[in-house]
Amino acid sequence: MHTTTKTLFTLLTTLAIPAGCFTGPSEREDDDAGMESGSEGGESGESGDDGEPAPMPEPAAGNAMVRVIHGSPSAPAVDVYAKGSTEPLVEDLAYGQATEWLEVPAAAYDFEIRPAGGSPFDAPVYSTGELELTDGAIVSAIAAGQLGSTGDDAFRVIPLVEDFDDAALDQTQVRIVHAGSDAPAVSIDVHDDGSDEVVALGRFADTGAAGLGVPADMKLQLAIGAGGERVTGFTTPELPEGEKLLVIATGLLGKLPRETDGFSLLVIGSQGSLGFIQQNPVVYALHASPDAPEVDLCAGDVALASHLEFGSLARTQVPPGAYDIDFFAAPSNCAGTPVTSDETPELEAGERYIAIATGELQPEAGEPPLQLVAFREGFDLDSPEAAIFNVVHAASAPSVDVGLVTGTTIEGGNLLEAGLKWPQISESFAVQPFTYQIGLAASGSPMPLTPVVSYHVDAYAGLRAFVVAAGDLAPDGAEAGFRLLAVDTATMPWSVTTYQ
Predict the structure, then answer these.
(1) pLDDT per position as a tens digit, 161-170
(2) What is the mean pLDDT of residues 439-444?
(3) Model pTM greater than 0.85?
(4) N or C: which end of the chain has fewer CB within 10 A?
(5) What is the mean pLDDT of residues 427-434?
């Protein structure tokens, strides 16, 4: 058997799912750090020619149907062999892909898995042992778990006998498989309304062959919980009426959502892989306005941050999209007349953002007004021994030159960024772990620079931080004075350290 390749555009057109809702692994990771924000799922087949969901395959008498789904984030692309054969049944099957259906005589089969392109005489990395494919059975064999592990997260093949109930009118039938290698037992709230449809779904278990009926032709909000706490959430595309889908929770919670092996939902249709649904974007709101009191940040009547005070950080997770944000003096219950309003850039699934309330509530001449600026986290992940940061100008101050202070000045070789204006973000800087004195000088001054202010900032191995210049250089009354707020994105959740 060889896998067949169809484009995701063709598949999504026939299933009436909007293109761009799913991603393939190669599309997911983006290591551009601190950028301002403004799939192919792999092997697949087609639906019916009339645009209706294709029926499940039906093997001839005495036969069974089987397909292989690669759902192991740690495993490379693989070849699959029947034991004793030197010809692969499946070649170069990558994470997130599914093969076409293969009709075989009903019998017991022992499948062997080897890295793609390897010799058939090499020892397999995994053998299934005998899998009984009975007469008339339709089986999806899901590769899951962590290759090389010997614990309860170890690599395995999960044989799912498919026996979906027919979907009711205006519904899609969904079978959910928990293949998250580092995730505990989870609950699933299909509408994110506080009522769990699935409770205590154990690792490598599923919700049953019949499937769950969920509303078709509308986006669903799936909330994933564990131990009574919300873990993460997903927004599905509009699911086609009558389709029968495997939804495989895979990847690692311990990885970033944007990483190839981050926790996600792999969606498999009756005729192939549709790709991944990534986690809803996460936004960390930072209060950096020197004269604003505690604020509530609201999207409509939903509070994204409550009682947010200067220098503090609040986390929220929202469906993908752009949002109009109202600023209220706390407490507000998101009602009344906002102090001001602003909008976010388009927030994308799988990404994390910092949204900074900057400017002044009552600006004086030359000072910026209160507003929101947002930047996407995209720090490089390939140099764990380095500390990486960038600098955000969110202070009531003119443009500055930023550098590392030696003695009392910033020498030319230690200049990090020249002419950083409000509310810009600098390039990313990778440095060796150390405590650095970061200085800010009036932009355009002759070298060596004499900093107006400087702070000793701890840069540890693995640090990934937005260093936010906040406050007022010449504060009046109750205004907050100038300082650096180092937002560490390497911690979960993010944390903020104040240097003043």
Answers:
(1) 999 999 999 9
(2) 95
(3) yes
(4) C
(5) 97
Q: Which residues lie below 8 Å from residue 281, measured CB to CB, with a gap of 6+?
A: 317, 318, 320, 347, 348, 349, 350, 351, 352, 353
Provide the greatest CA pair distance for the chain: 86
Residues 6+ apart with CB under 8 A from 462: 384, 385, 387, 490
250 CB neighbour count, 10 Å cutoff: 29
**Token pair recorded at residue 360:** 């002044």
Taking the CA atoms of residue 4, residue 9, residue 11 and residue 17 in that order, the dihedral angle to the nearest 10 degrees is 150
CA distance 361 to 336: 17
Task: Report whether pLDDT(9) > 70.
Answer: no
Across-strand partners of 5? none
Query: DSSP label at 26?
Result: G
Q: Token pair for residue 384?
A: 């764990």
Task: Tell me, letter by letter, the H, E, C secondary structure of 424-461.
Answer: CECCCEEECCEEEEEEEEECCCCCCECCCEEEEEEECC
DSSP state of 162: P
Q: Which two tokens stand for residue 249?
A: 């929770």
Report the residue count for the chain: 500
Q: Where are the beta strands (DSSP E) in 150-238?
A: 156-161, 171-178, 186-189, 198-201, 212-215, 221-226, 229-235
SS3 41: coil
**What pLDDT shows up at residue 24?**
63
DSSP helix/strand/coil, 136 = coil
pLDDT reading at 32 higher than 50: no
What tokens does 141 get? Answer: 């064999």
Quote the tokens at residue 379. Answer: 């720090």
Q: What is the pLDDT of residue 56?
A: 77
* Burial track 263-293 (b if 16+ CB lie within 10 A, e otherwise): bbbbbbbbbbbbbbbbbbbbbbbbbbbbbbe
288: three-class secondary structure by DSSP: coil
Helix (H) or strand (E) holding 144: strand 138-144
Closest CA to 397 of 352, 367, 364: 367
Q: Which long-range contacts (CB under 8 A, 24 or more apart) does 152-158 make?
A: 152/203, 153/181, 153/182, 153/203, 155/72, 155/74, 155/75, 155/125, 155/126, 156/126, 156/204, 157/111, 157/113, 157/126, 157/128, 157/131, 158/204, 158/206
Do the strands 400-404 and 415-420 form a parallel or antiparallel pair, or are they unpaired? antiparallel
**pLDDT of the residue at 17:** 41
By the 8 A CB rule, do 216 and 242 touch? yes
Percent of the chain with pLDDT over 90: 85
204-257 pLDDT, tens per residue?
Answer: 999 999 999 999 999 999 999 999 999 999 999 999 999 999 999 999 999 999
Question: How many other β-carbons are positioned within 10 Å of the β-carbon of residue 345?
Answer: 17
Query: Residue 334 corresponds to which tokens in the numbers above?
Result: 């998101």
* Average of per-residue pLDDT across 101-125: 96
The answer, yes or no, to whether residue 427 has pLDDT greater than 50, is yes
